[in-house]
Amino acid sequence: xxxxxxxxxxxxxxxxxxxxxxxxxxxxxxxxxxAGFAWAFLLYIFLFLYALLFDQGGNxxxxxxxxxxxxxxxxxxxxxxxxxxxxxxxxKLFALYAFLIPHSFYANAYFPVFPSLVLLANVxxxxxxxxxxxxxxxxxxxxxxxxxxxxxxxxxINPRELLKKLPGFLRIYVAFVLMMVIIQLARQKASESFExxxxxxxxxxxxxxxxxxxxxxxxxxxxxxxxxxxxxxxGVASISYLFFTGQVAxxxxxxxxxxxxxVLIGFTYxxxxxxxxxxxxxxxxxxxxxxxxxxxxxxxxxxxxxxIGPVGRTGLSQEQLKAIKDSxxxxxxxxxxxxxxxxxxxxxxxxxxxxxIFRDSVVGVVVKLFTLAASMI
Length: 377
Hints:
Strand content: under 5%
Strand order of the largest sheet: 1-2
Order of helices and strands: HHHHHHHHHHEHHEHH
Radius of gyration: 24 Å
Helix content: over 70%
Number of strands: 2
C-alpha cells in the first residue's frame, strides 16, 4: 500500500493540474508530462535496483510487465493521435497514467500485455456516452424544428443520393465483415489461452475497439485505393471461404454482427460529427487566429486552400497563419469559424481514478450492479 502511494500521489497531482490547465487554457503543458515521465522512470529504476540487490529479483518480472504495459500504451496513444482520435497531450497523459497505475489495480479485469486497455475503456466509454447523449438531444431538437417548419418533407429521402453512397457503404461493410472474422478467430484463440477472457471482453469493449477502427478503416479505404482494394479482396475472400467450406452458420453470425456494429458505430459518428459541426464551433475575426487552431469545415476554399495546404494534426502552423492573413489583407476582420477546444484531460483523470477505486472497467462495475440488483428482487 505504501509503495502504491509513490505511483498514485504523482498521478493525482499531475491529473489535477493537467485537468485544470486543459479546462482553463485548452492545453496540457509539457512540463508536467515531462515531470511525470521523469518520476516514473526514476521510480522504475530505483525499484529495479532494489529488487535486484535486496529482494533477489523478486519483483523484476512485475516491473517488466508494468513497463511493457506503459510502452504498449505509448504505441496505442501514438496511433490514436495519428488518426485524429486523441490530441498529442491527451495521448501522452494516457500513457503516463499507464506507467503510474500498478497492475494490482486491474485485478478484476486484467488484460495480458496491455492491462491499461481497461483504463482506455474507462476514459472513452463514459466520454462517448456523454457526447452521444448531448448530440442526440441536440439532434432531436433540430429535427423537431425542421418538422415544425417543413412538415413531413423534412424526412424526404433522395433515392439517387442513396445509390451514390451504396458502393461506399458496401466497402465499409466488407471491411467490417473482415474485422469481425479476425476478431472472432482471435477471441477463440484467446479464450483457449486465458481464463475468463470472454467474461472480461464484453460487446461494449468490442464496440469501443470498432469505434476506433472505423475511423482508421474509413481513412485507409477513402485515401489509399490500393489498401482499400486489398481490404475488399480479403473481405470477399473470407466470406467466400466460410461459405464454400460449409461454415454458413458462422458466416451468417458474422454478417449479422458486422451489420449491427457498422450501423451503430456509423450512426454514433454521424450524430457526433453533426453535433460538433453545429455546436462545437465559434466565430472569430481572421486576424485573431492563433497557431494550433482548427478552422471549421468549408472555411478554406479555392486558392487559399491550395496556398496553405492541409492543416496538420497540431492545427494551423505559423506559416499557414501568415498565408491566411496575407491572403485576406484588408479583410483581416472577416469572421471565420473555428473549432472549440475540448478538455479531455479531466475525462482521462476520472477514468484513472475509477480504475484505481474499483479495480475494474466501467462495464464490469455496471454488470455487477445489475447482477446485485437482480438478486435482490
